[in-house]
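pinging the channel bc i need a second pair of eyes. not urgent but kinda urgent?? the chain im working w is below, pasted from the shared doc
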Amino acid sequence: MSVKIKKLLPIIVLSALVFAAYIVTSNPPTAKRGRPSSTPQLSVQVQKLTRSDLALTIDSYGTIQPRTQSKLLPQVSGQIIRISPKFRAGGFFEQGDVLVQLDQRDLLAEVKIAQASLFSAKQNLSEEQARVEQAKQDWQRLGNSEQAPDLVLRKPQLLAAQATVFSAEASLAKAKLALERSNIVAPYSGRILSKSVDVGQVVSVGTELAEIYAIDYVEIRLPLKNKDLPYMILPESNRFEEESVQEQPAVTIYSDLATRQSWFGTVVRTEGAFDEASQQLFVVAQIDDPYGKNDSDSMPLKIGQYVSAKIDGKVIKAALTIPNRAIYQGTYVYVVEDNILKRKDIVIAWQNDDVAMIKSGLEANQLLVLTPLGQVTSGTIVNVSSIDGKALTNQGKPKKRMNEGKKTQGKNNAADKGKDRTKKAKGAES
């Protein structure tokens, strides 16, 4: 009996396994998947897009440079005996001010020598003129009726005497000019950038005394991005056109060196070539009278000071602009249509630090999503919490409807309570 059981045991186990496998394959497990909720799980703030005229402002930067900058050099030699109190680094001066005075004694002696030479030359000329007159009378006394030769009338000697006078007059004028140049005079109203000499120093012709610059106005070279060129008003002129008739855009110069300061100027010209290093076009802005009267709290402009600039560009009619914070990866945005989130690819025509002007991809009256979104997909149901900063309730439904719902619910509750009281009364009678 045990032998038969041992032989049948494998068959029984195999049959049980086959039956279990049949049961499993016939009844596969099923996952209970609920229907997606139609209730919005995400609230967003949106902006209704509109078209309006946009006055563009082009951002740039540069350093302050003087209109005229030059080195002050003496034209005569001598020892410095006096300098002006204005002759110091940062000092202001006016045109015609004597900044440096050289020792004039040697130059005065040269003037005296030149005057003496002139007197001598004039004396010789007078004597020669007398000889010419005497020669003319002698020729006539001899009974000659024809014109006397030039040699007889001593005309070559007269011309030589006249030449000597002219040379002496020129020497005197040159000596006086050298004496005048011993006073180093400011060629224009300006400011001392740096000085190189002081009292007691002997200088010669060509010795650098100081570096100066004009203060009537200063200039700033401003580079323009190539994408901004179509939106700029460039003051271009040709050789037959005056620069004064060109339209010159306004520019505001800013500096944060000490406090936030600003200066106003104009773009006066466009340079004639692109910069080889940056391949950018430069325009030149001008600020008139930068060192004139101003507020006591403001710091005057300094040569070499770094500044930023905002240049008035063209006015774009019916432009569609959006804030930069609504743009993702510079190529797409999200809009809401019928409470459904949709992705829109865009093409940006122009952009600054705050807004972007859209070339294509969006239209007016669309609802642009301003809320920063994480990992979301197009088609997500959303709840619009505010439009253009105005808060909404219950997905844009007025509060009145909500109150009416509460009133209806209250009436239903009162009716139910009345029915319960009637039932209780009937039970008591029975």
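so The mean pLDDT is 83. and The helical segments are 2-26, 105-141, 155-181, 399-429. — does that match what u expected or am i reading it wrong
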